[in-house]
Amino acid sequence: MADITRRFGWRHLRSAPTAHISHHKRGTLAHDGQGLSFWYRSLTAALSEVPVDDRELAMAFHARTADFQDVTVQATVTYRISDPAEAANRLDFSVDPDTGSWRGAPLEQIATLLTETAQQHTLDVLARTPLASALVDGVASVRERVATGLAAEPRLPATGIDVVAVRVVAIRPEAEVERALRTPAREQIQQEADRATYERRAVAVERERAIAENELASQIELARREEQLVDQRGTNARREAEEKAAADGVRSEADAARTVRLARAEAEAARETGAARAEAQAAWLRVHAEVDPSTLHALAATRLAENVPRIESLTLSPDVLTGLLAKLGRADGGTGA
Q: Where is the stretch described as Disordered (predicted)?
């Protein structure tokens, strides 16, 4: 929309570069073009503003397929006004000289024209297409048919409108039909998910079985090695006992032989000692047999005196002394001394 300002009964208009302005003064074209800026009097001016930029028109409408299923078509048409003068002649693009706003609704008229034309061609295509085909290939076929139909529509060039592009966003059935159509795919996906779950569980069970078998094999191998260890320990114990017994036997035999040899040596020493003592005793007896008895008595007294404790003093009573002397005298008389 153009910017209009007031100054002392005059009006000043300033338009955008994408708007085509036509200014008629008393039926004569005074200004015509894009991005204009000029002064005018509102009482004598007739203004029109035609946008020449690309505009997007979103549309949504219902259609019915060959199998009598309702679908919703969402599309977008890009158009532009290529001939502003022709458009201003066919549609009301006049603006209020005081406010700059359109007096009518020209863009709504263009939107209605494009929407009804596109809907007509869309209905023509979908009425001959089953629902399944419409959902799979309908977007391309509808886009192509709408673009061709809009290009062939004679009213659009006559109004100065060019269709730049046509886009079909989606073709969707009713919610219940869409859920029903999704059910087989969902079931198949669920079956695939279940199959994957079962396979994963089977793999997990197989791995658990392999782990259990490995553990059992490890336990069996461990038990076998323990059995071998016990047997080896028994063998080692028996061998150790046998070696110890053999060593004890050898040690006992050596001790016995040493004891026997020691006993024999002691016996031999005892015999020799006895023989020597006997011989010495015999010699001692022979010597004493050849010696005079008084000498023997003297020797006996000497030996006795050697073994008698030391006597510092001896007191004899007269009676004892008399008896002792008597005995000595008799002894001397008996021996002839």
A: 231-252
Bridge partner list, 64: 70
Report yes or no: 146 and 171 within 8 Å, Cβ to Cβ.
no
d(CA 179, CA 194): 21
pLDDT digits (tens, 9 = 90+) for 238-251: 888 888 888 888 88
The token duo for 167 is: 């886009």
Each residue of 281-296: b (16+ CB within 10 Å) or e? Answer: eeeeeeeeeeeeeeee
**Given the structure tokens 């047997």, which residue do they identify?**
231
Q: Give SS3 for 63.
A: strand
Report how far residue 81's alpha carbon sits from residue 20's, in angstroms, rounded to the nearest whole number.
Answer: 10
Q: Cβ atoms within 10 A of the Cβ of 217, count?
A: 10
Closest C-alpha among 165, 169, 171, 172 to residue 75: 169
- By the 10 Å C-beta count (0-12 exposed, 13-18 middle, 19+ buried), 85 is classed as middle
Sorted by sequence, the CB contacts under 8 Å of residue 93 that are 6+ apart come out as 48, 49, 50, 84, 87, 102, 104, 106
Q: List beta partners, residue 47.
A: 23, 95
Count of Cβ atoms closer than 10 Å to residue 111 Cβ: 17
Q: How much is the pTM?
A: 0.54
Phi, psi values for residue 180, rounded to 5° = -65, -40
Q: What are 258-307's pLDDT values in tens digits?
A: 888 888 888 888 888 878 887 877 776 776 677 667 776 676 767 766 66
Task: For tokens 């006559």, name the residue.
Answer: 158
Q: What confidence tens digit (pLDDT) does each residue in 314-337 have? A: 676 777 667 767 766 665 555 444
